[in-house]
Design a protein that fits this description.
The chain is an all-alpha fold and 198 residues long. It has 5 helices and 2 strands. The chain has one domain. The longest helix has 61 residues. The termini are far apart.
Length: 198
């Protein structure tokens, strides 16, 4: 009678280790992709600053603005936000109010952390689905931005669901890490709670 439960326990340990290896692989892959996307987002910020500065200077000094800077910056803003959103999650750079978490016992704080990640995951998954449909429609009609320069914007619209879904992958990994903490595989700790006020 005791042997089947031992076999089941061994099987669940092996299964958990296999899933853990898959999560480590995905974590490394997502981190590399996010680093590349963050570099592009950073370059986009620099390009926005440079183009706006030149455009404003020319407009002020010789009354000759650069055509298309406004339209370009609209697209660059999408790149900045949605290509950098996952890296911000990895680095825990999003605004969080941890006052309540700090008052709870660590196990309850981790459970509440999991609930927060699940809510974020659901919101971003729905947002990614809806914006993905809009991006596909935009591609099908070859949508472009009217203005001084006509610029195609379907590809910028496609960056929104891409950023949302990539962040969903990161949130799944964050949930996995928190579950591993509760199971005792990782230290029972929330590092972001120690970053402020200690």
């Amino acid at each position: 009678m005791g042997q089947p439960s031992c076999v089941n326990a061994d099987h669940s340990v092996v299964l958990y280790e296999e899933v853990e290896l898959i999560m480590i692989f995905f974590s490394r892959w997502v981190k590399k992709v996010c680093m590349a996307f963050s570099a592009i987002a950073g370059a986009s910020v620099a390009l926005m600053i440079i183009s706006t500065t030149i455009d404003t200077t020319l407009r002020f000094t010789i009354n000759y603005p650069i055509p298309g800077v406004f339209e370009l910056n609209e697209v660059l803003l999408v790149m900045v936000v949605y290509l950098g959103i996952t890296w911000t999650q990895i680095e825990r750079g999003h605004t969080r109010v941890i006052l309540m978490l700090r008052k709870l016992p660590i196990r309850w704080a981790i459970k509440l952390d999991i609930v927060c990640w699940i809510i974020c995951f659901l919101f971003l998954a729905v947002l990614g689905l809806q914006t993905g449909k809009e991006a596909l429609r935009s591609y099908q009609i070859s949508e472009f931005r009217w203005g001084a320069v006509q610029m195609p914007i379907w590809w910028a619209k496609a960056l929104v669901p891409l950023g949302c879904w990539l962040t969903c992958l990161q949130l799944l990994m964050d949930i996995w890490v928190d579950i591993s903490r509760l199971k005792g595989i990782l230290p029972l700790d929330l590092p972001e709670m120690r970053q402020i006020g200690d």
